[in-house]
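Why do we care about 3D structure at all? Because function follows from shape, and shape follows, mostly, from sequence. That is the central idea of this module. The next example makes it concrete: a single protein chain, its amino acid sequence, and then its structure expressed as tokens.
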Amino acid sequence: MTARMPTYFLSHGGGPWPYMTGPFRKNFDWLEKSLQDIPRQLPQRPKAVLVVTGHWEAPVFTVSSSPAPGMLYDYSGFPEETYRIKYPAPGSPALAARVQALLNDAGLATAADPQRGFDHGTFSLMKPIYPDADIPVVQLSVKDDFDPVEHLRAGAALAPLRDEGILIIGSGFSFHNLRLFGDAGVQPSVQFDAWLREAVGSDAATRHAMLANWSKAPAARLAHPREDHLLPLMVAAGAAGADPSVPVYGERFMGGLAASSFRFSQDTRATGFDRLAA
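And the structure:
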């Protein structure tokens, strides 16, 4: 019998960091440890992983449907060798079709993209979690109208995958304002992170209402001028149903910015990787 998988919202870090060395790479040491711990938290090895990536926006929810996805180097200013890296996990056309069917049954329009490669919202997470790239991975876009309720609905529609051995990961970042990556971002990140923890940690109805109205949160638009990196959380939370959440990562990223990741499941045990816990 297949045990129900948790869902996650994971902060994915910057660019191709898992493939780098040097001072920049060391900024991600704690995040890496938290990601490497995820397989231990699962009830079983997943049959496949569905990554809702904040680095893919489309007019309708769109799935990657290639059996052998390539790579999408969606960053700039990094060392030349990081534009040759590979994360050679297989895709899963069957899972892509299943995702479309579930979303369509919920009245949500979908599309499939057989050309889409793995973007860094996907491979930057999957490299530490499953470094052998031996589990099929399918990507799901966010919808470019950025409607939080639509993304919560999409998550709820995808919830049956959890009982089919599929791990659902929302990949974004809990604070994503590149212009405030420094001292100016510290206070807004702390304010928004405190609200986010309250919202995610609430009962399902309250969580849904708070996330649907996230833009009214303290420092919301300073934390997310564009919500592309927050919307994957809505899908993960929607798929969680009534399951509670626990932070699985938290730190003052790069010395000051509050950053968090969350797991939704009946297992509320702490992981030991939340340095922001009260």
